[in-house]
Amino acid sequence: MKLLHLIAVIALVACACGPTAHTPTGSAGPTASAGPISSAATGPSTSASPPATPPPATATVRLALDWTPNTDHTGFYVARQKGWFRDAAVDLQILPFATASPETLMVAHQADCGISFQDSMTFAVAAGADIVSLAAILQKTASAIGVLADGPIQRPRDLDGKTYAGFGYPNEDPTLKSVIKADGGSGTFKTATLDAAAYEALYNHRADFTIPFMAWEGVEAEQRGIKLRYFRFADYGFPEFYQVILACDRQWLEKNRDAAKRFVGATVKGFQFAAEHADEAAAILVSENPGVFDANKDLPKASQEFLDGGGYLLDATGTFGTQTLERWTGYSKFLYDQGLLLDGGTPPKPLTAPLDWARLFTNDFLP
After folding, report:
1. To pair with 298 at 20 to 30 A between CA atoms, which of 9, 30, 148, 186?
2. How many C-beta atoms lie closer than 10 Å to residue 123's C-beta?
3. Cβ atoms 133, 323 nearer than 8 A
4. Which of 311, 317, 287 is nearest to 300 (CA)?
5. Residue 360: count of CB within 10 angstroms of its CB
6. Which residue in 320, 315, 325 sits closest to 361, CA to CA?
7. pLDDT digits over 70-125, tens only?
8. Cβ–Cβ under 8 Å, residues 28 and 323
9. HEC assignment per residue over the chain
10. pLDDT grade for 331, boundaries at 50, 70 and 90
11. Domains of the chain, each with CATH number or no CATH
């Protein structure tokens, strides 16, 4: 019953970024540890040749998507098509998005890993989920406050008294208020929860601002000739964060450490390729998902070019996946300070002490 209750709590609070993360590189810091990977002691050398190491048995990895395939997922499809998972003795099973969030599936052990977000994973861990981030898919947020470029709103403080087209996640209003106040406003605005209809509400002048994912809705709007002006959160003192991450079930990791390292290694190779070969990677994403992009076949290429050109996939050293304690602490602490992190009780209550931020992530599985 405890597991069922935890799953129910996570279903309510663990999707703070929404299924597509389309709502709301620091200096290196210490990393959390997923636990030591043991190695056998080496005995005295002998003249006899050591026996050949047998290849690892193929391991199945179930990966839960957060939404329909998009450029947040490109690296997985690249690595699969190029045979890098096969070479790593990994049978990757990509679970299509359903009604249950990836965090819920990992808690129920119905998925080994999943696409998550710094905020939604922090919500889930606060509620008792035993999951951890193994890699940052996006090094920084690709979402921003968006307004029509030809409208009167020139800066965040102009949003006072305006109407926000939102998505119903608990971190939206506190984030917006923080940015508006940082620009000298009062942080007072009206909210209309419209979910996916939020974008069209802005475009049709039924709302004044929303939070587009610039790498997808933003690119799509530009293709439609809709010009947007953006106010990026970090430009107004808001903590930068890892918008999209690869999270895994700790219990699965403890039993499958070697397989997890092979899986992450092939994944890193796929995303590193996508970061350096945007057009080819986007073509692979499309070919691996027939029919998904028929409505706009140019969007994946344009989106991948946006991510690559904007430095979203790689850190300052040109490396994919790395995470720092500084970045995990900044945003996750903001969620705690706002009273948004709820425990797994009945009913859920705000945490009375912060989480150990270092346990939310690890770099130990990166190659």
Report:
1. 148
2. 29
3. yes
4. 287
5. 25
6. 325
7. 999 999 999 999 999 999 999 999 998 988 999 999 999 999 999 999 999 999 99
8. no
9. CHHHHHHHHHHHHCCCCCCCCCCCCCCCCCCCCCCCCCCCCCCCCCCCCCCCCCCCCCEEEEEECCCCCCCCCHHHHHHHHCCHHHHCCEEEEEECCCCCCHHHHHHCCCCCEEEECHHHHHHHHHCCCCEEEEEECCCCCCECEEEECCCCCCCHHHHCCCEEEECCCCCHHHHHHHHHHHCCCCCCCEEEECHHHHHHHHHCCCCCEECCEHHHHHHHHHHCCCCEEEECHHHHCCCCCCCCEEEEEHHHHHHCHHHHHHHHHHHHHHHHHHHHCHHHHHHHHHHCCCCCCCCCCCHHHHHHHHHHHCCCCECCCCCEECCCHHHHHHHHHHHHHCCCCECCCCCCCECCCCCCHHHHECCCCCC
10. very high
11. 6-22+56-141+242-360 (3.40.190.10), 145-236 (3.40.190.10)
Whether residue 56 has pLDDT greater than 70: yes
Residue 139: which of 268, 305, 320, 267 has the closest Cα? 320
| Range in 18-27, 130-139, 231-240 the model is least confident about | 18-27
pLDDT at 143: 97
* d(C-alpha 336, C-alpha 123), whole Å: 9
Name the pLDDT band for 150 (thresholds 50, 70, 90). Answer: very high
In the chain, the amino acid numbered 138 is L
Asked if residue 328 has pLDDT above 50, the reply is: yes
